[in-house]
Specification:
Layout: H1 8-27, E1 45-46, H2 57-64, E2 69-73, E3 77-84, E4 87-94, H3 97-107, E5 113-117, E6 120-123, H4 127-137, E7 140-143
Antiparallel strand pairs: 1-7, 2-3, 3-4, 4-6, 5-6, 5-7
């Protein structure tokens, strides 16, 4: 078995931590994710403004109507979270779209719905909770594959 090293290791660890946080939120009585379809382009729902410059964590949180508490500060990504009347949101910003894609590849195995933009991603309690954010910031809604079953 080959162990990760170099620049890939922190990204892998941060991605795993982020996924664990999302899964823990569901396990602690949060809403269970709906059955998800496999991710491929036919299931992504782009907004009219899917492309564009990267949004900062502060801008994303402001569009949600909250202030994000940063919980991971790494070279490859920044992760924060906040809670609104619609539920708990996890906001991630990335140093590159390659790092974003690597994180999403790992995170999809845990299910969920992601609003994905240029070097950022937001996970929310449901697809409908992410739609107003997509309307204001753009992005594409993507679904994870999930595994196992909900209690």
């Amino acid at each position: 078995m080959r162990l990760l090293s170099g620049p890939a290791l922190p990204l892998f660890v941060a991605g795993g931590l982020s996924c664990a946080i999302v899964v823990t939120g569901y396990a602690d009585g949060g809403p269970a994710p709906a059955a998800q379809r496999p991710p491929h382009s036919a299931h992504a729902t782009p907004s009219r403004a899917a492309a564009g410059p990267p949004a900062s964590m502060a801008r994303i949180a402001a569009a949600l109507g909250c202030r994000a508490d940063v919980i991971v500060e790494a070279q490859e990504l920044r992760e924060g979270g906040c809670t609104t009347g619609a539920g708990v949101f996890r906001i991630l910003t990335f140093s590159s779209d390659g790092n974003k894609r690597a994180w999403l590849t790992e995170a999809r195995a845990y299910g969920g719905t992601y609003l994905v933009g240029t070097r950022w991603s937001v996970t929310g309690p449901s697809r409908s909770a992410l739609l107003p954010l997509r309307d204001s910031l753009g992005g594409t809604l993507e679904s994870g594959t999930g595994h196992g079953h909900s209690p």
